[in-house]
Amino acid sequence: MSLLPDSVSSRYAELGVDADHALERLTSIPVSMPCWQFDDVTGLEGGHLEGAGIAATGNYPGKPRNGDELRQDIDLALRLCPGTTRLNLHACYAETGPETVDRDAYTAEHFANWLDWAADRHIGLDFNPTCFSHRQAADGFTLSHRDSHVREFWIRHCQASRNIGEAFGTRLGSRSTVNVWIPDGYKDVPADRTGPRVRLASALDQVFASEVDRTFVEDAVESKLFGIGSEAYVTGSFEFYYGYAMKQQILLCLDAGHFHPTETITDKFSSVLMFVPGVLCHLTRGLRWDSDHVLVLDDATKAAIGEIVGGGYLDRVRLGLDYFDASINRIAAAALGVRTTQKALLQALLTPFSTLKEYETAGDFTARLCLMEQLHSLPFGDVWEAYCSHQDVPSESYWLQEVKRYEAEEFGKRV
Ligand code: RNT
Ligand code: ZN
Known about the structure:
The chain is an alpha/beta fold.
């Protein structure tokens, strides 16, 4: 039975697209929501977090003060999203209780609350070592640090993180993507660009030499062009990690905000996926020097997701959001990005790629261009609304009201 009014499905059927089938496919594509959007990447370790980090700007009220409040906020955001969602955790969201445990000694037990929470909701968990906001990262270098003691600390932390991912995957019956990103780099022009990269490669070799069951963990490494305080040089550049992911045959993480301001990731999938087994796609909106604005349905997002779908890469690309904005309601920011991702996926799933490819093969670039333009005036919004209603989540006009109601009830308690 169709979820859609005939007037809507027939518009797609004319182009050879089965809109109901697109919705079925949409439901099966997991989108990972970042826990760090909910509290400005603060984490639950307590105390003052030192060292090079990543900065969220803004001071919107209602930031959760502990793990329970954080999970309650995430619950609301998840309820506002249709389809299949996952939660992406960072190691700094460990809950060690009264015990003092450093990051290199974390185990899945320190994430027991998260595991129970996820098992209860039947959602998968992804994981990230937190190689920033820590005294061992105070000078901005971690896995590529010149001091072997510092490197070894972060190697142990990354190994521990992979074990945690393995435990998540095993317990939840859903493979966990474990993504390594480090902040290492120089503010100003370095004299030696080689040394840090040689040290990083060898540290990563040790990280990935430790055994984990690949049925339950999928490793990824994330490149960056520059950061605040690492404008001149980043050890883990794109070229570095592309080569490294190829060598290890692990996932390459492409963060949409980690390239030159006018460079997008759309054209990269078809190249890198010839040589690496998969891509982790960090969906975010780069804006000038910031790589972490809330995702919206802009051309770059539509094009990247269109390429993942149209190129036939959905089974080899993991979708995760990665941004943090503290200037607006944090829960709304998280839900908005997931819904945006799903809307971009839906638009792509409703695209007659086979017809476009036929036109191209026939050399009819006129028809290819005109069909691409015609797609913009299809009743996509109606398909999306019908989907939300079928999935029992609020429509575009109503979801924010639920956030506002929650804000009015809850945030006053958090002063
Ligand atoms: C930072 C990277 C990284 C982080 C998260 C919190 O530039 O994009 O993915 O945003 O790990
Ligand atoms: Zn990222």
